């Protein structure tokens, strides 16, 4: 296909659409005129390759050779691309290199491995330890132990059926009695609970339904990327978003191979950066998908002193949910111990086996005579102390697996001589003990396990246990230090413009636990912590007892952020919250009495009469919530990087964690200040790409006067000026803007949000923000 109008090499802005059977390519095509008018340059599509039937997200890929039939197939994708081109839009597609669905009846490659074992040509696709469990691939699919489920296993010709599952039979085994037939297969169906300790394939985090793919193998890379690379070559798609590169054995090598294969197309990676961590400079990508920008923008609208006061109220009223003492870092550490001991026990066991073999086979006597339990303990103690997701080949591992962490790990051992296992493991991680194939395998498995542990312990556990303020509890967030000063924000933007000018930026995604507008409302609570504590005390007394005090904090903040919600919607989000926290109930060990108490609390509290008190409090704070919502949106759309607008967020968008935030897309036709702001900024970016791109500049602009700290402003390439109100409630309590002023750069400036006026010289901030708490100015007359 020859594009009618080539899209720019680097997007000016992307718009994320969640494709699913209820919103296929045809629906996206119908939305193209609306999205083009909005001002974006590219549509950002969730995964488009064949997935498990009915999947609402597409990350459970089953066939890399085909575009997903339920979405309209390749013909539907090409039709969408043609229509997009006619409206000046390109396509960016989400790619999933790390894993596939472990559903053999849909996944032909896995089916062939189950049929032929390690001799299958597809055996190299999957990260399977054939040396474990008698050479059988363990499949944790049985509802109960085998003895109880034997009657549900049926031989049907050359396949084995179990409830909704279908498995191939090894050739020549069809006529064997069932017990012997099961023993003769290349796989072993077992009770699902054995996945914690007995699994012998790598998976996505602790999700056994997603099996790890060995994208580091050139043959596997070619097979799993061929279709998307062909579509890139043919101009159907223009760029890529790489899902979860931290799960790969060698992200450095993978991204280099991808860069070469795509010819350097615009590519961003879903890399989660901890506070102070930078994207590896050697990676040949445009940057991240933008969670680091999310933390910066959210933090800018968070009051540091108020966040500290909220934490004090939280500790006094809720106590400590575990031995973290109501502190962030210990809460994460405790969660990490639980996850590595239980959910990732099989990954730790495999890593320990590799370390034990390296020690046993080493020519260095100093590595001999280390007990597997000691090596396993050393691995566990080092893993839980990692403060980033994982080490990389291109970034010294000593900055990740630090001597300080090693010293703490040694202190766990009661016998000093046994503590030497920590040094042995650390040397293996750092590559000091050899560089053979098994050493490389150990380092990659350590890194892969580290990333899974960090994600599960922080994002999926601690974020639900530590709840003094919910807004910073997002991927890449730092709940222990939620606020970002204007100076630090400007420093971040200056560095990004210099080092990663084409990186992605986001505020809401399909994975955020709360949409940007919900978080913007919650951040206002840091400006009135005492008043919020009083409201909580009042509604807690009015709604009666709650199952536990932490649920009180989580539930009422969730309700406040949403500004009222249907009972089933709020209950679903809070039920997920308490199961993820894992303190009283979990997904796998559900506590019916506790969960019933949660439902009763939601009905009688937030969704009952006491909810009106919180709704009234939110209404009182509405102007300050509006200031945060508009300020965050404008900063996101004009700061360095390529903004990604999540579906529906151009207007008011209040959503919670999935599935709440993955509903089929509906255009936001209702007029609003946020919609007007979004259109103005996006159209400006599309009209003047040079003002925001790689050759652009970023310069902070500082206000003068008593309210100066509440005005955050910056200039892009001397041609566009952004100014927003920060901490507006604190500003109002201090007497407002008064004679605070902002000196504009020389020339006349047109106000894109109030086209009837032009400004120049020294401007009173109160006048600048007379209609809206934000301003977007463009140098007038081409000056």
TrEMBL record:
Q: Which CDD domains match?
A: AmyAc_MTSase
List the protein's name: Malto-oligosyltrehalose synthase
GO molecular function list: (1,4)-alpha-D-glucan 1-alpha-D-glucosylmutase activity
Gene source species: Streptomyces chiangmaiensis
Q: Where is the Glycosyl hydrolase family 13 catalytic domain?
A: 11-685
Which InterPro entries did the record assign? GH, GH13_cat_dom, Maltooligo_trehalose_synth_4, Trehalose_TreY
Give the record's keywords alphabetically.
Isomerase
Query: Which Enzyme Commission number(s) are listed?
Result: 5.4.99.15
